[in-house]
Backbone:
């Protein structure tokens, strides 16, 4: 999104904000049922569906909202969870080979947390841990057998890798306040963000207590040719494979014939 | 210009797979190898998850081999009878190789075996071919030197001559036991299944040194066998791992079919021992690059197994 586009969108959002507040009743019904008229926290996303098409290179979404009471804002976006295997290379007779591995379950494919102040200053660690707010509070279930003494190292390596790919992000101060009530933050999704259902959670926290929370679903899905290819490869793998082989043979033959004529 | 790969679930510049395809296609036309042993590591290097890289390489090798074999076939350089006998052994071998693959995976040593077999086999074959072509090149430079004794090919050995099931391979000017090419196809099939490549780089020297086929016929014939082996591998991956990325394959194929044509043309201008010397250098280069990766301590000892669902 260009800078100009961002400013235009922001202006639009500011103008639309009173209307959005009025329309909240209807929209909230889709997410969490009717919110009380004096809800201290109202939030929404600039889009609820990210479509992956052939030109998809990742995208930014705007999460915005309004608060009725002062406090700190914590935004957490969680992607679909899956299993993950971390392997460790060790030198064996001078060669770096894969030796040990640890498998985890319940690993979110995407996890972004951003807050108006450092998490430790906003809320007690018990609260953060219970709600799995902050990358350090994420709980992965170890699913392997036996005891791995350096299991935390494997867990750290998993997080390190996800952070490198931009799939896990944690930041402080990226929540912009526009006056005392309005706030917004940009969430960036890399091209490798997994497809599935995401949850965008916003917490309003004051005096180490949660005043209000709202959760909004978000979907990332493949569309068009990408979706068709993906679904076909799952639904009819043998036919898909046959097509892949035939396409390769045909294009190889075609190229050979075309080049012979030249 | 970026393009999203639906199965690899990543976004790459469109020129990257096109360029890789063209480079590998050129080499496949020049040497008669599928190029999978080059393409798989290169795809992994640009960030494609390994299972997707293996499947895509196999699939694109089908295309580049068809394209290259056509040119060889028109020159009459394909021994279909030999190709069919090799293939019979190859299909049986790749079936057994797939079983070995599963066993190694269960005992957790698959990665080590794949890495080591790449280095050992590429290194061994590369050095053998390199010594041989250097000797031949030196000899052709010094015609005055006394001619060395005629090199005994494997198929001259009395024990091998005694094998039953003798067949006449007219194109290859050979009259040998069918058991030889069947055994060769079987061994290459095992390695192909474990290493996930068409294994032309092993087949070509083996056909020259073990079977004693003329170099010109070897390339076309090995390409023919590679088409079927890689088509089989593509099918297996589409069904079992579901990692065949058609978008990636189409881009690789578009680059490779064009590259392969230039490869065949340039190959026709080179002498047999020159082609073998260049292929030896390439195979050795890949072996050294892979060995370096094994020896140098990685930046991060931990890595995440690609989370393909």
Residues:
């Amino acid at each position: 999104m260009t800078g100009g586009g961002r400013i235009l969108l922001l202006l639009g959002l500011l103008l639309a904000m009173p209307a959005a507040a009025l329309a909240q009743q209807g929209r909230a019904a889709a997410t969490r049922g009717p919110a009380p008229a004096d809800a201290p926290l109202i939030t929404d996303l600039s889009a609820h569906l990210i479509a992956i098409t052939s030109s998809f290179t990742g995208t930014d979404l705007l999460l915005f909202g309004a608060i009725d009471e002062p406090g700190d804002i914590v935004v957490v976006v969680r992607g679909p969870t899956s299993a993950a295997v971390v392997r460790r290379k060790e030198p064996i007779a001078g060669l770096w080979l894969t030796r040990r591995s640890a498998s985890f379950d319940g690993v979110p494919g995407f996890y972004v947390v951003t807050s108006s102040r450092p998490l430790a200053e906003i809320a007690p660690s018990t609260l953060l841990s219970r709600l799995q707010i902050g990358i350090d509070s994420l709980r992965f279930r170890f699913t392997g057998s036996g005891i791995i003494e350096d299991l935390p190292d494997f867990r750290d390596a998993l997080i390190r890798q996800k952070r490198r790919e931009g799939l896990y992000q944690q930041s402080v101060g990226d929540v912009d306040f526009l006056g005392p009530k309005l706030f917004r933050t940009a969430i960036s999704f890399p091209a490798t963000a997994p497809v599935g259902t995401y949850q965008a959670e916003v917490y309003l926290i004051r005096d180490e207590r949660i005043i209000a929370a709202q959760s909004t679903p978000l979907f990332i899905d493949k569309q068009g040719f990408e979706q068709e290819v993906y679904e076909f490869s799952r639904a009819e793998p043998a036919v898909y494979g046959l097509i892949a082989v035939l396409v390769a043979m045909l294009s190889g033959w075609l190229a050979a014939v075309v080049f012979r004529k030249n | 210009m970026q393009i999203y790969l639906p199965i690899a679930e990543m976004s790459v510049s469109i020129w990257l797979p096109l360029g890789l395809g063209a480079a590998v296609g050129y080499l496949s036309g020049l040497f008669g190898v599928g190029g999978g042993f080059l393409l798989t590591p290169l795809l992994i290097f640009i960030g494609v998850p390994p299972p997707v890289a293996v499947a895509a390489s196999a699939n694109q090798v089908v295309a580049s081999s068809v394209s290259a074999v056509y040119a060889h076939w028109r020159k009459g350089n394909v021994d279909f009878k030999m190709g069919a006998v090799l293939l019979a052994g190859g299909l049986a071998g790749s079936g057994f190789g797939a079983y070995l693959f599963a066993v190694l995976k269960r005992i957790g040593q698959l990665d080590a075996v794949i890495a080591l077999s790449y280095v050992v086999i590429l290194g061994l074959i590369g050095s053998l071919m390199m010594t041989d072509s250097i000797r031949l090149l030196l000899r052709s430079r010094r015609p005055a030197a006394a001619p060395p004794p005629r090199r005994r090919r494997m198929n001259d050995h009395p024990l091998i001559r005694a094998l039953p099931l003798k067949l006449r391979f007219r194109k290859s000017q050979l009259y040998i036991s069918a058991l030889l090419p069947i055994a060769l196809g079987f061994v290459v099939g095992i390695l192909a299944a474990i290493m996930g490549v068409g294994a032309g780089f092993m087949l070509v020297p083996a056909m020259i040194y073990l079977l004693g086929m003329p170099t010109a016929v070897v390339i076309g014939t090995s390409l023919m066998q590679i088409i079927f082996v890689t088509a089989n591998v593509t099918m297996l991956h589409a069904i079992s791992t579901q990692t065949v990325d058609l978008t990636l394959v189409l881009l690789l194929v578009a680059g490779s079919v064009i590259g392969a044509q230039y490869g065949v043309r340039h190959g026709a201008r080179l002498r047999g021992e020159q082609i073998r010397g260049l292929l030896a250098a390439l195979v050795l280069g890949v072996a050294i690059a892979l060995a370096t990766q094994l020896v140098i301590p990685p930046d991060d000892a931990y890595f995440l197994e690609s989370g393909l669902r």
